[in-house]
Amino acid sequence: MAVMVIHVDRTAVKAKSIPSKAVLALEERTPEASVLSRGWVTRHWLEASGQDGVPAGFIVDRTNRIAWMGPATHIEPILKRILRGEWNIDAARTEWQAKVSDDSVRLLQYRRDILEATVTGDVATASSLVKQAETELPSALGHAEFNILKLQAIVDGPDPDDHATRFYIEASDRFPTDVDAQLRLAAVIVRDTPLNIEALKAVLDRLQRLERQWRSSTEADRPFPIFQVRLHLTIAEAALRIGETAECERQIERVSLLGHDTRLDDAHRNVAADDSARIRRLRHEAGIASRSGMAPADDPSETEGENRAGISCRTGSCTAAADSGDIAAPL
To answer: In whole angstroms, what is the distance from residue 213 CA to residue 215 CA?
Structure first.
């Protein structure tokens, strides 16, 4: 049995605190290991299985075949069935392939490769991979994460403004009810194209529409407070960038009110306070600049837990998939 984890130190402490025969092993840093720590095991076990994060579990039977793979929390009942001789590997393979297609694994690989190129600043490679993915997998644009990565590649490329505005609108319209996708797409525009007025207006229009929908719904139907905080902060910054300072302040006040919501933990509350302060500083600097006739400097600071594009780089998510042909091999 093997479980892939990110937090090796925490796992080691836990293993020492209970009776265990667990062996901890660090993934070898082979030449193909990357800036996102995608070593051989990550690529050919985790990513080839189609699992999108860790902890991820694998059970190897007495004949050295992987009898099962999936969330680590599901291991115990599966292991008992295997030990009792009640497990059907062929049926497990069929069930897994019904959930995780070769195309989905291939798209996961592209997403991780594009993300890695983006993180390392290799714009040409990121753009090339986006085009390859769209050619090979026409369904790629149906996935929010791919749209976010493509928008980032456009923004990072030459002369991005018109193309970025058009694609942002298209991508936003593809996922009208996906709150996280809406906010992350908007983050690419607000943070990376602060002078693209048309794109910022499009962001403001869509997020204000989303805000109106939330405010007309019942409390039970509204998203978790952290999403509301992110919405108000993004609207605030977009409004500030196009000179709507009253709207900016209104949104920051709403963030302040949400800061008292007991469902927010301290970490999220602190991030909200820090980002509100950052936007207010931008507003203050913009006011000084307008009075002096100077253009305000852009603020390159980033939101905790995200890179400049709002692309998720949280623990366990910055990996890529192996070739689609590998998916059947483990089972």
So the answer is: 6
Question: Can you tell me the distance from the alpha carbon of 282 to that of 233, in angstroms, rounded to the nearest whole number?
Answer: 13
Quick check: pTM over 0.85?
no
Question: Assign residue 7 a region: left if phi > 0, alpha if psi is -120 to 50, beta otherwise?
Answer: beta
**CB-based burial label for 30 (10 Å; 0-12, 13-18, 19+):** exposed
Please give the single-letter amino acid code of residue 130.
V
All domains in the chain, ordered by first residue:
2-100 (no CATH), 102-292 (1.25.40)
pLDDT digits (tens, 9 = 90+) for 40-79: 777 788 888 888 777 888 888 888 888 999 888 888 999 9
In SS3 terms, 80-94 reads as HHHHCCCCCHHHHHH
Tokens of 277: 């302060």
Its sign, for the CA torsion 92, 95, 99, 105, is positive
